[in-house]
Design brief:
Protein name: Kinase
Strand order of the largest sheet: 1-2-3-5-4
GO molecular function, one term: phosphotransferase activity, alcohol group as acceptor
Radius of gyration: 20 Å
Keywords: Kinase, Transferase
Shape: globular
Number of helices: 11
Number of strands: 9
InterPro entries: Kinase-like_dom_sf (IPR011009), NH2Glyco/OHUrea_AB-resist_kin (IPR006748)
CATH class of the largest domain: Alpha Beta
Number of domains: 2
Low-confidence stretches: none
CATH superfamily of the largest domain: Aminoglycoside phosphotransferase (APH), C-terminal lobe
CATH architecture of the largest domain: Alpha-Beta Complex
Distance between the termini: 55 Å
Pfam families: APH_6_hur
Amino acid sequence: MRFGVVPSSVRRDVVAWFGPAGQEWLDDLPRTVWSLARQWSLRLDGPPYGGGSHSYVVPVRRADGERAVLKVACRDGENRAEPTALRCYDGDGAVRLYEYDPETGAMLMELALPGNRLKSTRFFGHKTPESAWRRVGIACGLYRRLWRPAAIPEGYPELPSATEMLDGWRADYTDADAETRRRLGAARLREALDRCDALDDGPELGIGNRDTHLSNIVSAEREPWLVIDPKPYLAERAFDGGYFLFEQQLNGPHSGTALLRAVAEELGADAERVKAWALLRFADHLADTPEDRHRDHAAERMRLLEEA
C-alpha cells in the first residue's frame, strides 16, 4: 500500500499549530497509516482529500471491497472526542464509525456519496432567500437529531465541557490585555463577562457541537444529508445553535431577528441562550482577528445580532 502525499494545507497547519509535536506526527504518519492498513485490512482507493487543516483523510477499500474513509488526526482538545460522538450517533444523522484506534486516535468511517457539501449545493432557485433558508433548516434539523445524552462508550475519550470554555473566556476577559480591550471595547468586554455568568447554569446537558457549519454536512445515499467532522462538547442544546448562528450571521445572507428565531425554533432551543452563545463566539472572533477590515465586518454583523 503506497502512502499518499500529505496535502500542503495539512503539513503547513500542523507545523504552525503544534510545532515540534506536529512535525513528529507528520514524520510518523506513513508508518501510522501503514500499520492501520494492516490492522484493518485496508488498501488505498485514491489520493488524500485536500482542504483539511490537521487531519490526513484518504479513501480506502475494506477487505470485502466496501469503500470507506481513513482519518488520522493530529489530536488536540477540540478533535480528540470526535470518535466518541460518532460512536454515540451510530450513523443517525452522521457518518458511521467502523473502527477506532485509541493509540493514534485514527478512525475508519463511512464514505458519504456523492459527498457534496450543503454549503455549495445548488437547489432550485439557489440564489433566492428561500434556498438559503432551506440550508438553515436542513442543518438545524440534523443538529437537533444529533443532540442526545452523553453516554461515553468504554475506551473512548471523555467530552470537553462547554463550561470549561466559559471559564476560559471569563479568565481572558477579566484580565484582558490592551490589544484585546482595543479590539472588543470596554462595553463588549463587560457584556461578554455577564454572558459567561448567565450561561454557567445551563439546562440538561448532552452531546453538543462547536463546529456547526454548512461545509460539515454532505449529501449521501443512506440519508439525504450526513454530518461529518463533529467537534463534540458536553453542552446544552443552545450551544449548537450559538455556533451555527455565529457562522450564518457572519457569512450568510440572512441575519438578525429572523435568523435567530429560525435557528432557535429548528433546534428546539431557548432563543436568548442561543443568542448569548453566538455573541460570545463573536467576541472570541473579534479578539482573535488582527486585521481591521475583517474585524470591522465582524463587528457590524455582531451589532445586528445584538439588536435582534
